[in-house]
């Protein structure tokens, strides 16, 4: 008797399975195919991404190597590379090009390159802020102190990775603007900040002491 019940039970399960497959089989097959295609597509996309990154990196290294023929050649090669590269790699090329311009004493041109990176909303915010900081550095002796300080203000916040350099530069700009008291206060704050890099703290302590005597 138990064998009969088992056979009946198996027949019922088979009938249910056939019914389910007839009703939903097309969707099940489509889902399975989608999984296979999706997995294969993702693997192909990941491989393409890896190859693309390798090619982009090799092209950037090649552009940087052009500096061996002179900084002008390097700047040209990096600018050409940045014109066709994806955003992150283009920004790296622009940083390198601006550094070469600084080495040539072309600080105004370097500042313009930094401005381009800072203004590009597709670039990572940390790199945009770094470009703002470096651009201000190139104008510290020629730009309007108040305007430059206003640009740097967001970078002096506690959450900014560039806050120590931004505060130090803001203090220098305060000196240029004739506000010795503000500069002295900023230098002292940096000198007393245990989280500030040792070099920044040392310079700030010396300058706070120097301008504390005026």
Describe this structure in words.
The radius of gyration is 31 Å and the shape is elongated. The protein has 214 residues and is mainly alpha-helical. The N terminus is likely disordered. 80% of the residues lie in helices and 0% in strands. It folds into two domains: 135 residues, no CATH class; 75 residues. It contains nine helices and no strands.
Number of domains: 2
Shape: elongated
Q: Could you tell me the mean pLDDT?
A: 79
Helix-residue proportion: over 70%
Give the H and E element order: HHHHHHHHH
- Tally the beta strands: 0
- What is the beta-strand fraction? under 5%
Q: Gyration radius, to the nearest Å?
A: 31 Å
Can you count the helices? 9
Question: By helix and strand content, what is the structural category?
Answer: mainly alpha
Low-confidence stretches: 1-13
- The termini sit apart by 110 Å
The biggest sheet amounts to: none
Transmembrane segments: 24-45
Keywords: Membrane, Transmembrane, Transmembrane helix
Organism: Azospirillum cavernae
Protein name: Ancillary SecYEG translocon subunit/Cell division coordinator CpoB TPR domain-containing protein
Highlighted features:
Ancillary SecYEG translocon subunit/Cell division coordinator CpoB TPR domain-containing protein, mainly alpha, transmembrane helix, 214 residues
SSE diagram, text form:
Blueprint: H1 2-65, H2 71-84, H3 87-103, H4 107-119, H5 125-138, H6 145-152, H7 163-176, H8 180-192, H9 198-212
Helix pairs in contact: 1-2, 2-3, 3-4, 4-5, 6-7, 7-8, 8-9
């Amino acid at each position: 008797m138990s064998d009969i019940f088992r056979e009946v039970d198996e027949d019922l399960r088979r009938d249910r399975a056939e019914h389910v497959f007839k009703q939903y089989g097309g969707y099940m097959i489509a889902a399975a195919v989608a999984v296979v295609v999706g997995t294969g597509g993702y693997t192909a996309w990941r491989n393409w991404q890896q190859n693309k990154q390798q090619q982009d990196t090799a092209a950037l290294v090649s552009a940087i190597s052009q500096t061996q023929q002179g900084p002008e050649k390097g700047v040209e090669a990096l600018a050409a590379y940045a014109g066709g590269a994806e955003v992150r790699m283009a920004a790296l090329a622009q940083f390198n090009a601006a550094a070469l311009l600084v080495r040539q004493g072309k600080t105004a041109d370097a500042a313009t390159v930094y401005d381009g990176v800072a203004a590009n909303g597709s670039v990572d915010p940390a790199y945009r802020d770094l470009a703002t900081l470096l651009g201000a550095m190139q104008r510290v002796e020629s730009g309007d102190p108040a305007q430059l300080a206003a640009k740097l203000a967001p970078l002096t916040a506690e959450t900014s990775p560039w806050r120590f350099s931004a505060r130090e530069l803001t203090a220098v700009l305060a000196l240029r603007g004739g506000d010795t008291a503000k500069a002295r206060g900023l230098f002292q704050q940096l000198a007393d900040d245990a989280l500030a890099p040792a070099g920044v703290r040392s310079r700030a302590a010396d300058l706070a002491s120097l301008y504390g005597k005026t």
